[in-house]
Every structure is written in C-alpha cells, then in structure tokens.
Specification:
Elements lengths: L18 E2 L4 E4 L5 H9 L16 H11 L7 E5 L5 E11 L4 E9 L7 H17 L4 E7 L3 H10 L2 E12 L2 E11 L3 H12 L14 H7 L1
Helix pairs in contact: 3-5, 5-6
Amino acid sequence: MLGTRAPRTHWDFPEKRSIAGRYMLLEPLSLAHAEPLFKLAQAAPDSFTYLRYGPFAQLDALREILADLTTREDQPFWAVINSDGTPQGWLSICDVSQTDGAFEIGSIWFAPALQGTPAAREAIFKLMCLGMDDLAYERLVWRCQAQNARSMQAAVNLGFEPEGIWRRAAIVDGWQRDVAWFSILRDTWPACRAALEAWLDPGNFDAQGRQIKRLQELRSAA
C-alpha cells in the first residue's frame, strides 16, 4: 500500500488577521506590543530557556527581535491580548507546507501569568482551528526540545500524539538538544477539537475559576 491518497495538492497559507476568543484576542504581533511585553519578559528571564532568542535586558533588544518576527512572510505571529486589553505573549504558525498540507504551531512565549490559563490554551486552540478547520490541513505538528518537560506535557494535554525524538537535532545557546515531535492528523482532530471546546466552556470552571474536568477526561469521552 502506498499510503493515504491526498485530498488535494495545494493548501492556502494562513492569513494573519485578528481572531477573537472567549478569554482572549489574537492580534497580529507588531512593534506596538513591544513596551508592555518587555515589562513581562524582563520579569521572567527564565521563560526564554528553550527559545532561540531572549531574555531581554533592554527594550531595544526586544524591539529588534519583534522587527524580525513581525515581518516574516512565511511565519505569521500573533500577540495574545488578555481580557484587560494587554498583550501577554506571542505564538506563531510556522513550517507551513502548502504542498503537503502540514503546519506547526511554535515559537511560543507566554508570560508566567498567562501560562496554564484558559486564555493560553484558547490562543493555541484558535490557531489549531485556523489550520485544521478553516484551511483543512491534514497534519498539525508540535515540536519542542525534549528537555522542555512543560512543552512535552502541553503537547500531550492538547491531544498531540508522540512521533519520536530526533537526538541532538538542534544547537541552542551552545548546547546540543534532542527534539521531540508530536502531531494531530485529520482523522484524530475532531475528537481533539470537541474536547478542547468542552474544556473551554465556562461551565467547566467553578466560581474560583478552577477546572471541573481535565482535558484528558474530556478527550477520552469524545
């Protein structure tokens, strides 16, 4: 057997536009976000351990990175705007293959206050939906350094399935790092989407904002 017959030979590139959610707003990343993001980034230098840029000692250093990120034609970036209107981090769609129907969500930086919140999970979910629903891609990728335990766990929580580890596949800050690969395919996407929608529903949180059902439970039910 040669494999699964491809449904098409070309997929549209993701459009960089604002995307509203229940808990946050995704807004195309711009230099206008630099100052509020700098305050958060400066307070959390360790949050850049697994990224190829940062931490930032000066505002101009962050502006220089944002000038690069915001002008990449092959990698659209979004700022995550919290309910109070302030940017709390950024993320991107990268490694888009318009001929193979695959894309990745990556280069994620969330301020500590955003991490683990419904807004953080919804930000990722909205980009998942953009690629898998709006553009009907066949394969969604999550890639991270294998030493990054939090990112590895996030992939599993979101419903990505492990594909293996490329040993010493990247050099970051002078260190050779193993790279772990995860994916969601078109066949498994509906169950993942249903679980995420159920988890993000306001009814899944108590009066103190604590989750009632874990995402893994909801995915098993779906």
